[in-house]
Amino acid sequence: MTNESPSFSSADIARGEALFKGPCVFAKGVTRIEDLPADGRPEVAFAGRSNVGKSSLINALTGQKALARVSVTPGRTRELNYFTLGKQGELYLVDMPGYGYARAAKSEIKGWTRLIRDYLRGRRELKRAFLLIDARHGIKPNDIETMKLLDEAAVSYQVVLTKADKPKATELADIQAKVEATLAKHPAAYPVVLTTSARTGSGLPELRAAVAASALGGAP
Ligand code: GDP
């Protein structure tokens, strides 16, 4: 499936490509709100259930094989992982901890929820959150919880379907329509869904363009 979106011009796509051609470097892992970077750089965040394909997508976007895993060493998976992106370090990519991990302890979930809530509520630098949803499964109850957090915090967010190479085209269209119907009920959600595959690379130029436009200006 192609991922043509009328909202992206070839100039938007080129800007996204140029941004992601620049270096992407791990900056820091944050577990406490007071440790968030304070340099005012704009940022975009990637959120999603664990196993949604977030690490694979970040690695595919940046063209680096193991970038998102660098920080995923034991004990560090509950952090907000900050990466600088671009020739001039124009923005931060924030890899949020995956949620919905079946074996997570209750106390851990509580800690995660508090960190995320505090982060989303007060973070002016956060220009858009990209909420990753597995194209085979669609939106799950804990995704709805995250969407509510984003709505309450009035953080603009956009759904990105992952692993689009897996479902058949008809199933994919069906999931996409269902997701868009759900988004219509969420005030902070951007209505256009992006469809991606880290494996085939489909939809990546559009997602790079969306990151560039939302962090650096010009987002629709
Ligand atoms: P994370 O927990 O969200 O960071 O997920 P990972 O990136 O570790 O991916 C979870 C699983 O999904 C791994 O087995 C990946 O190989 C697989 N996966 C990730 N992206 C894709 C994709 O685009 N297509 C397919 N078919 N599998 C994928």
Topology:
Blueprint: H1 10-21, E1 24-30, E2 43-48, H2 54-62, H3 67-70, E3 80-85, E4 91-95, H4 106-122, E5 126-134, H5 141-153, E6 157-162, H6 169-183, E7 194-195, H7 204-216
Parallel strand pairs: 2-4, 2-5, 5-6, 6-7
Antiparallel strand pairs: 1-3, 3-4
Features:
single chain; 220 residues; alpha/beta; Rossmann fold; seven-stranded mixed sheet; 7 helices; 38% helix; 19% strand; globular; binds guanosine-5'-diphosphate
Overall description:
It is a single chain. This protein has helices spanning 10-21, 54-62, 67-70, 106-122, 141-153, 169-183, 204-216, and strands spanning 24-30, 43-48, 80-85, 91-95, 126-134, 157-162, 194-195. With 220 residues, the protein is of the alpha/beta class. The chain has one domain (10-216): Rossmann fold, CATH 3.40.50.300. The chain has a 7-stranded mixed beta sheet with strand order 1-3-4-2-5-6-7, sandwiched between helices. Helix 1 packs across helix 7 (204-216) and helix 4 runs parallel beside helix 5. The mean pLDDT is 90. The longest helix has 17 residues, at 106-122. Bound molecules: guanosine-5'-diphosphate.
